[in-house]
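Ticket #177: bound-state structure for coenzyme A.
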Amino acid sequence: MPHRDHVRLRPVSEKDLDPLERLHEDPDENGELGFFGYRNPGLLRRQWAESGFLTPRGGRLTIAGDDDRFVGEVQWHEVLQGPASPCWNIGISLLVTERGKGYGRQAQRRLVEYLFAHTKVNRIEASTEVVNIAEQRALEGAGFTREGVLRGACFRSGAWRDMVIYSVLRAEAGPEA
Ligand SMILES: CC(C)(COP(=O)(O)OP(=O)(O)OC[C@H]1O[C@@H](n2cnc3c(N)ncnc32)[C@H](O)[C@@H]1OP(=O)(O)O)[C@@H](O)C(=O)NCCC(=O)NCCS
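RESOLUTION: The complex was predicted; output attached.
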């Protein structure tokens, strides 16, 4: 289990691009729940060269293990619940070899701290398929509250899937228990 202080989020560097591409484009790395078809090859590298994946509407950071190795990535993008009420929807993906070691919970906790510290949103949400128990446990461990089920919300591998939605509000985010 990684120590909480050893799970670091940092901007994506050039040496992260190979494993990041693998994470996005290799069906074996994506796993059953994470593959949504092939995407524009080279797009990630172009976005990295343009913005470093950090824009006012969203971003992407590397999850770095204790020796600074690339373990996976977290991302966020803007969702509007009202015309003047932006919140963040976050996502995460870990290399297959790094799953089940506690990085998922710690990295999402670090991302919540980061986003509440550096942006003004009141709400951070995350959704995952009802069958993705690891992500639901990781979100609960990171301080998220389960809100409900979004029926038939996500198309993957030939079928529409139910999602569970979670959130954490600014007033609820505190130091790790
Ligand atoms: C989902 C994911 C981020 C979870 O991160 P992780 O580091 O593997 O999970 P953690 O080690 O932090 O474990 C969190 C909890 O889930 C449980 N868990 C881990 N893997 C599990 C599995 N395969 N099945 C059931 N429970 C699992 C752990 O026991 C732990 O439970 P606890 O809170 O009772 O201690 C990671 O597995 C992953 O990247 N999966 C592929 C991509 C993905 O599904 N992303 C989310 C898409 S919405």
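RESOLUTION NOTES: The chain has one domain: 4-172.
TICKET STATUS: resolved
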